[in-house]
């Protein structure tokens, strides 16, 4: 039992180290030795858990996909309507991208055209945004726009914040995401719903986050 | 003279091949032999023109920066106001990103965190978008929004279209970009200016482009 726990911890440490090294050096250049030494384990231990660098990248992407799933389900039911839910989740995702290197590296790996057959985190996000907008339409909180007209632009903007935020966390700051929703919500929301929507997010923000340009990873 | 022309043509062929191989394989993996053989020249000829893979990447980024510059200046003065100019240029940039591998690879290289000291094409685009919005404000065509509030969202969305378009050209299609501006223009434009703005772009579109999901590269 103790042995099994230790194996799980080692596996998790390797996924964290791999995310850090993939983010810093890129998948192609990332060395397995750098990953194992950052995790404080031997190369042998790394190979016991992961047969190749590609398997390690898949594990990072899987972990990131689970975290993305956890972020969207954590908000489910809390927000008043699906448009507010979309706003709240986008704030939470932006914050976590600056704090969580596994989530960050997962999105980067998923964009990598060189590796084949990886997880499609952008697709997962796109499907979720599309479904949230469909729900908002069903709730009558969308105005003159249809979910299909809007989804691509929302996904493109959030992807842009994520990509640009990799080099400068200000792109993922609470202020930047709030301004985006301040711009977009009056176009998206039906007039009776607009007044109740909070572009800054309807959830209390963790101390130190609001107004900060993001945190260094 | 003839010799000089041939040298220029070889240099250009190498830049084109390098863009193709960087786009396909990524900078880190891209092999100089693949690049020279695609250009139809010897490894020696490649090394005569470019001392290293990094120099070749810089040449691709420089060429892409010139093309971006040419795209924005080609529209200057043609559009009625700076907001329409922004719409027209974004359509043109999207189309060219699907057609021109040098422009495409230039943006990809400029995003690459691994290489240091590269050209900042996203910064060049960001500055141009900011300046266009400032001009639009000066012309009185912006509504209740200020350029500073809007610029980041426009840059993020266009960056998202570019990044997502690398894997699926539908993200850069005329239809996708038109929908983005249909969504945003009513929020950006002063009411008297809105009626005169064309979300689909005010320039005639090349045959075969409108409505197509983009072209394979």
TrEMBL record, chains A, B:
GO molecular function: DNA-binding transcription factor activity; transcription cis-regulatory region binding
Residues in HTH tetR-type domain copies: 8-68
Annotated region of DNA binding: 31-50
Pfam families: TetR_N
SUPFAM superfamilies: Homeodomain-like (SSF46689), Tetracyclin repressor-like, C-terminal domain (SSF48498)
InterPro entries: ArpA-like (IPR047923), DNA-bd_HTH_TetR-type_CS (IPR023772), Homeodomain-like_sf (IPR009057), HTH-type_TetR-like_transc_reg (IPR050109), HTH_TetR (IPR001647), Tet_transcr_reg_TetR-rel_C_sf (IPR036271)
Keyword Transcription regulation in annotation: yes
Keywords in alphabetical order: DNA-binding, Transcription, Transcription regulation
Matching PANTHER family: HTH-TYPE TRANSCRIPTIONAL REGULATOR BETI, HTH-TYPE TRANSCRIPTIONAL REGULATOR RUTR
Record protein name field: TetR family transcriptional regulator
The organism of origin for this protein: Streptomyces spiralis
Lineage of producing organism: Bacteria, Bacillati, Actinomycetota, Actinomycetes, Kitasatosporales
């Amino acid at each position: 039992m103790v042995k099994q726990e230790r194996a799980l911890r080692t596996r998790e440490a390797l996924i964290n180290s791999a995310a850090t090294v993939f983010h810093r050096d890129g998948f192609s250049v990332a060395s397995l030795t750098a990953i194992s030494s950052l995790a404080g384990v031997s190369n042998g231990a790394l190979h016991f858990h992961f047969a190749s660098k590609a398997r390690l990248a898949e594990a990072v992407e899987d972990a990131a996909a689970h975290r993305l799933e956890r972020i969207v389900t954590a908000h489910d039911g809390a927000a008043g309507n699906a448009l507010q839910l979309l706003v709240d989740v986008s704030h939470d995702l932006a914050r976590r991208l600056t704090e969580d290197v596994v989530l960050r590296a997962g999105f980067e790996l998923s964009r990598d055209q060189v590796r084949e057959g990886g997880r499609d985190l952008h697709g997962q996000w796109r499907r979720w945004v599309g479904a949230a907008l469909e729900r908002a339409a069903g709730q009558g909180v969308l105005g003159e726009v249809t979910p299909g007209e809007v989804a691509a632009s929302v996904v493109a903007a959030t992807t842009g914040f994520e990509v640009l935020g990799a080099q400068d966390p200000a792109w993922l700051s609470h202020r930047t995401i709030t301004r985006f929703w301040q711009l977009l919500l009056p176009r998206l929301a039906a007039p009776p719903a607009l007044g109740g929507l909070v572009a800054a997010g309807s959830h209390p923000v963790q101390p130190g986050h609001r107004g900060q340009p993001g945190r260094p990873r």
